[in-house]
Amino acid sequence: MEYIVLMSKSLTCHCKKVKLEVELGESLKNLIKCNCSICIRRGAVMAIVKSENIRLIKGKEILKTYQFHTKVAKHFFCSNCGIYTHHYQRRNPKMVGINVACLEGKEEINFKQYKVLDGQNHPLDKK
Ligand SMILES: [Zn+2]
Question: How many CB atoms lie within 10 A of CB 104?
Fold first, then answer.
């Protein structure tokens, strides 16, 4: 019999005005960075979770959205401290990338082990 591993954690920006609750499941085993124009600038190590597994607890009023190019992806950051917390992906808007450095308790996160997504050659940009 298999059990789904439930691992719920808080995710906060630096000033802690923004707080989310994330059901991580196995997502920390597949960390990524991305080389697209925005990800390469912010440099965050990310995990990917389903949108139903992330919930905003507080900070709705100061959480800002940034969009560019096709404006499908939604990038969220705290307008007080500037920290990127999460984003709804362009390749699948039902999936959410989270900034794992914002998770409370980082013991089981290996920041040196991640795959690099080739966002510079995004599949949705190919003609
Ligand atoms: Zn903040």
Answer: 10
